[in-house]
Amino acid sequence: MFSSVSSMLNAAEKRRLPLWKVILEDDCQERGAGMEDSLRKMNSLWQAMKSAAKNYSPQTRSSSGLSGGDGAKMRSLCPKASVGGKFIDSIIAEALSMGESNACMKRIVAAPTAGSCGVLPAVMIPLAERDGIDDNTIVDSLFVAAGFGQVIACRASISGAEGGCQAEIGTASAMTAAALVSIKNGTPQMSANAFAMALMNLLGLVCDPVAGLVEIPCIKRNVVGAVNAVSCADMALSGIGSRIPPDEVIDAMRSVGDMMPCVLRETGQGGLAATPYGAAAAKKIKEAGT
Amino acid sequence: MGIFDIMGPVMVGPSSSHTAGAVRIGYITRKLLGEKPVKAELLLHGSFAATGKGHGTDKALTAGLLGMKPDDERIPHSFELAANEGMSVKVGTVTLRNVHPNTVLLHVEGLKGRKLEVEASSVGGGQIKICQIDGIETNFSGECPTLVVHNIDKPGHVAEATSLLAKYHVNIATMQLYRNVRGGYAVMVIECDQPVPPEPLQQLSQMDGILKVTYLNMDTEVAEKR
Question: Pick from B112, B134, B156: which residue ends a domain?
C-alpha cells in the first residue's frame, strides 16, 4: 500500500508501468486477489455510477424536503444562454443530480464518500460521452483516482467528521483531477500535479451541513469539486506544475483538519448550519421528526 | 484502507455511517437472532437520534432486519415492506453511556419466539461494531467470516471450537471471550480468514454445553444452526 504520492510515482517509473497498473498490482498483492478480479470489481463500480446517473428522478425530494430537482433545472438551461457552455453545464447538472440522488436515498457509489459521490462521475460520464472514451480506459483511470485517494486516507483522512469538507470534496476533486490527466495520456507527474493543485484549491473547506444532513451545502459542493478537477487537470496537461509537492499538500490538509474546531466537522453546529436559516431548518426538521 | 474502501461501496444514500452502516447493523442482528424477526424496537442514541430520520437510519435498520444489504434499492420503502411481511417496528431514542455517537440498541423478537438485544455502533465509512449481545460486551465488525458461539462457561469449549476450525483448515484472525458471571453464560467471537464450511458448524452446534452457534459471512448467504 502506498503511503506517499512520491513512492507511487517512483514505483511507476522504476517498473516502467503506467500509474493505474502499479496501483492495480499493489491492490492485488494486498488482497491476495487476481488482476481479473480487481478489474471486474472496478468495472462494476463504473457501471453502477452510470446506472445511478440514469436513475436520477427530477420529481423526487429528500425526506427533509430540503433538496431535489436542481439537477433537472440545470439540465434544462439552454447552452447558448449559459456562461460555461454545453460541456461544463452537463458536468454541473451531473454533479447536482448525483448529490440529489444520494440525498433522496437512491443507489450511488461512494467515491470516496457518499456525500462526495457526485464529483468523479460528474466529469467522467460527460467526458466519456463527448470524446467517445471506452469503458476500459475509464476503469483504468479509476485505479489512478483510487490510488491517490488511498494516499490521502493513509496520511490524512477522507472523513468530514475528522477533516472537514476538504477531506471529502477536496479528496474527491483531487482524485478526479489525477484520473482525468491519465485519461488524456498525461504523465504520472502531471497526474500528481493536477492532484496537488485540486487539493490545495479546496484546502480549509469546512463541513457545516444544515441540520446535520448530507444536503445543504454538500450537493452543490460536488459541483465545485467537479469543475475544480477539470481546471486542475487542464492546467497540469498544459505543463503547469504544483510548486508544493503533493505529499506536503496532503500533510497540510491533515494539519488544517486537526486545527478545525469540532463545530465545523460534520456536527451541524457551525458555519452554514449555524446561520438563522440553517438553525430554523434544523428546528423544523426536528419537530417534524418527533 | 484498500482502494476499494476509497472507490465504493455501491450503496443507498445519503450517508455511509447513518445509512449503509445502519443496514449492516440490522442485517447482522437478523443473523444473530437466527430467525425471521416479527417484532423490533430500535432505540437510537446520539447522532443517530439527532439526524437519524433525515438520514433514513430508521428505514436502514429496518431494511437490514428484513435481510437487505446496503445497496438494496428497496431500503427507502422498508417500513411498508416490514408491514407486508408482518414485522412490527417501533422507533425511539435512548441515552447510552460511554458509546460512539452513532449507536443503536435493538430489541428483536423472532417468529419462533426467540428474543435478542443487540447494541451496535456505526463507526464510519459503513463499518460497524457489535458492542453488546444480550448485555454481554462484544467487539466485532462482521467484516470477515465470523463465528459467534454461545455456551455454558465451562472448561473445554474454547478448545473444542478452535480444534474443529483447525481440522477444517480455517485460520483464526482474532478471538474474543466474554461471559456474564463465572460458570454462567459465555460468548465466543471468532473472526476467521477463510469461510467456515458447514460441517464444523453442524458438529459444534451439537456439542454438549453449546447453546447456539451463529455464523456470519456478509459476502454469501448465511448458515444458522441451533
Answer: B134
Both B120 and B200 in a single domain? no
Q: Which residues of B touch A30 (CB under 8 A)?
A: 2
Instruction: List pLDDT tens digits, range B209-225.
Output: 999 898 988 765 443 33
The Cα B196–Cα B173 span in angstroms is: 13
Parent domain of B206? 146-225
pLDDT for res A289:
67
Identify the band that residue B50 occupies on the pLDDT scale cut at 50, 70 and 90: confident
Instruction: Indicate the pLDDT class of residue B226, thresholds 50, 70 and 90.
Output: very low
Q: In terms of domains, do B161 and B81 share one?
A: no
Residue A168: DSSP 8-state: I
For the residues of A216-238, what is the DSSP string, one character each? Answer: TTHHHHHHHHHHHHHHHHHHHHT
Contacts B126 to A, Cβ<8 Å: 110
Over residues B103-107, mean pLDDT: 97
User: Rounded to 5, what percent of chain A is helix, strand, coil?
Assistant: 70, 0, 30
Say whether A211 and B2 touch across the interface (CB within 8 A): no
Return the residue of A nearest to B70 by Cα. A107
Coil vs helix vs strand at B200:
helix
Residues of chain B positioned with their CB less than 8 A from the CB of A102: 13-14
User: Residue A90 is part of which domain span?
Assistant: 5-289
Domain total for chain B? 2
State whether B16 and A113 contact (CB < 8 Å).
Answer: yes
| pLDDT at residue B178 greater than cutoff 70 | yes
Tell me, yes or no, whether B187 lies in a domain.
Answer: yes
Q: Which of A18, A46, A43, A42 is nearest to A31 (CA)?
A: A42
Statement: residue B126 has pLDDT above 90: no
Domain end among B134, B163, B184: B134
Domain count of the fold of chain A: 1
Specify whether B10 is located in the same domain as B122: yes
What's the CA gap between B219 and A144, in Å, rounded? 26
Q: What single DSSP character describes residue A272?
A: G
Residues B72 and B20 in one domain: yes
- With an 8 Å Cβ cutoff, are A42 and B7 in contact? yes
Per-residue pLDDT of A235-246, as tens digits, reads: 999 999 999 999
Q: Which ipTM value was assigned to this complex?
A: 0.95
Instruction: Indicate whether B190 and B110 sit together in one domain.
Output: no
Query: B127 and B30, same structural domain?
Result: yes
